[in-house]
Structures are given as C-alpha cells and as structure tokens.
Amino acid sequence: MNRHTGGFYGVNEALFSSALACIVFSTSGAQPLTIVGVTGLISLFNYTIFDIIQRHDVALYPQFMTWVAIWAAIFHWLFAICNLCDYMRYVTDFSSQSFGAYVGIIYCIKGVELLIAEFESDGPTDGFMSTIIAIMFFFTVYVLEMVGRGLWFRPWMRGFLGDYAYPNQSSVAAQARQFPLKKPGGFHWDFFLLGCTSFIAGIIDIPLPNGLVPQAPVHTDSLTNYKSVLKIIKKEDGGEIRQQEIVAESVAEQRVSHFLMGLAIIATMTGPILIVLNLIPRALFGGVFFVVGWGGLEGNGIMAKIIYLIREPRFIQPDEPLLQIPRKRVAFYLFWQIFGFPVLIIALIPLRWKVLPMIFTAKELRIMDAPTADNEVVLASMGGKPRMPKGKEDEDGETDSPGGRHSADAQQNKWSAAERGVPREALRERAGGWSEA
User: Fold this and answer.
1) 394 pLDDT higher than 60
2) What are its GO biological-process terms (predicted)?
C-alpha cells in the first residue's frame, strides 16, 4: 500500500488504524471477540482509488480519501439505525462462496504481481530469491496446518504447531456453530461503531479499519476449549476403525486479549521495532498473499463442487449429499455461481431468491446451498432464522424449500454442510441451528 500510494500511507498509519479499531471494539463492541483492523482488501481498495485519481490530479488523493471515509461512515450509521444488518441472515453460501472465490483469486494475482515487481526493480537474481522465499513461506504454513489437522503427536503438540500456521478464513467461519458462543453479536451497534472509527480514520488521514465486522477466526479459535475424543466405528467383519473427533466445548468470551492486542500494536510503532519490521523482505508478503488466497480457494464450496465433478466416481463417499443430484445439475449450479464474479455482489442475493428457485428444485437447493450465518447466537442478533423462498417442485412431489413451511423443525436437518470445508464428523446438531443433510 505504501508503494502503490506514492508513500501517502506508511507502516505507522496502518498500525495506528488497527490499534485504534482494536481498542475501540475491545472496550465498546457488543461482541467481545469482534476484531477490526486494516486488511489486504482495504489496501487494494486504497491503491485502486489512487490509480484512478492519478489519471486526473494526484494532489486530490488525500481530500478524496477523507470524503470516502466520511461517506462510508454515513452509510454505516444509516445501515445500523435502519436495522439493515438484519438482512444478512438471508445471505446464503451461493453468494458468499462466489465472493470468497473472487477474493482468493485476487490475493493470488497480487502475490504474483508483487514477485514480478521484484524482478523488474531488483533484477533476476533478487527476483528468483524472492520467489523462493514466497514459495517456502507458503509451503511451511501449509505443512503446519496439515500437522494441526492431522493425527501426529499429542493433541497439545498438534495445537502448538498449528497455532504457528497462518489460517485465512471468512468472518463467518468464526461465527459458525462449531464455536459454542454464548454472548450475542450486536451487529447493528458494531456497524455503528465501525462508522465512527471510519470517520476518525478519514479525518486524520489513516487507512480505514476493516470494512467488515468479523470475529477473527484465529482469535476465536485460540480462545476455544477443544476436547479430543476417540470415535470407534464397528465394521461388519467385527473389526473397528478408530478416528479422532475434535469437539469444541466452550469459548472464553472476554475483552482482555483483544485490548492487549491493541496495546501491543501501539508498541510496534516504536523506533526499535519499526527497524525490525523494515527488515522483513517484501517477498514474504507475496507468500502471505498466496497463503491467504489459496486458503480462501481450497475450502471454498465452488472448489469442492469442481473437485466432486472431476473425481473418479468410485472414490466418492456413498454418504456424499451431492450424489442425490445429477452431475449436470451440479455443473449448472456452478455456472450461476461463477457467473456472479463480474456481477455486483449484492445482486447475487435477489438472484438466489428470485431466479434460482425457478431453476432448481427445493431439494437441489437444500443440498447445494445453506445459510452463511448458521449460529443460533448470530441469527438471534440478526432478527432470527430466515424464511427462504420456495423452490419449484421436486421430482418426488416435495414442494417445500428450506426455511419454508417446515423451516423451524422438520426442514432444519436438511441444510447441507457438504461444501463448508468442515469435517462431517465434526458437525454436531445444535438446538436452533441447521444440521447436515
């Protein structure tokens, strides 16, 4: 961001913006685990505007960014006051997966662009070494994540090694039902608060804090108490299969860790630590882009459907929900998701509500789609469970779609989690939520 904005934004500005949002939300936010800060998307947003302004008069950039922040604050306040955050409960995987795949691809592209810039500015030798650093960082993180999810070592050792990985997950992943949260997420108040921090950031010329209100998944995960359970499956021949099942028992929902993060970020703005930060090679950020980008693609439902379609049929598990749908219908659904890439993302929501129910049956939508926000606590703060539109008749005469006439009870166990990237054995039915198909 510093390089692409002519030096207008620097390291200190980004650190101060994150520290400001950290302290404000840790002390005043409704949900204590909500973390807001400068993200990669904000960086892309800032220097995309800079590229546009540069075509006219680059001297206008500071004033223009101030007005962008002011208008962003106004819209946040209007959304909060008018309770428009409630409509987030109608967002399903159809649109969130399209947006997640788009973001993942953008991150990978930016990683490649950064390495190309290293070749152009420093020559082939430095460019080659930068590429090696980025690739090694990517694979190191990937291996650590595999260890954290695997069966090697003891649980405490797996957790210790996994904590040194660099997960990138969506904000929804931290609010999903696998985290047994108790305190509600006051989205309207947090949205209003984000408008306040955006307004302050614009006035004092620092980058906007995160344009979302996520519960950082890494933070939530680190505060979750897990229990490793031995699951024994009896075989027909009398033998048994032993599997590990990780169960989330509780989350330590408090404000101290978040507040200390803000103070720690302020500490990094001191001279000695800034010198250390200056020694980090830019190539490392290329590796970060690859990790974040691939992390968003690997667990994406679009990627899961593509892998399902190209996988040899005999190796597909018999309990795979997508087997209930003809493969050409899955491919047709994929077409609509990929079609959403160049479309304004908010337009995908009415598309899902008005068009798809006329094209796909209720059964097909139940299996391939699901509410993005599925935690009972989260839904309670957004106006309750959504009532989804009815799809056209199923082949078996079934006419109700999820969230229709039987949404509260009979239909709730038909939501699919097949493409969530969550192990099927790890999903547990919770009162008021949706269980797997």
Assistant:
1) no
2) borate transport; monoatomic anion transport; monoatomic ion homeostasis
pLDDT of residue 178: 63
For residue 46, give the nearest of 28, 65, 19 by alpha carbon: 65
The residue type at 104: G
Which residues, other chains included, contact 128 with Cβ-Cβ below 8 Å and sequence gap of 6+? Answer: none
- DSSP letter (8 states) at residue 11: H
- List, for residues 137-191, the tens digit of each pLDDT value: 888 888 887 777 777 777 777 777 766 666 574 445 555 566 777 776 678 888 8
CA distance 298 to 18: 28
| Nearest by Cα to 38 from 81, 85, 2 | 2
DSSP characters over 302-354: HHHHHHHHHS-GGGS-TT-GGGGS-HHHHHHHHHHHHHTTTS-GGGHHHIIII
Cβ neighbours of residue 289 closer than 8 Å, sequence gap 6 or more: 40, 107, 108, 110, 111, 114
> How many residues does this entry show for the chain?
437
Cβ contacts of 414 within 8 Å, gap of 6 or more: 366, 402, 437
For residue 67, give the 3-state DSSP assignment: helix
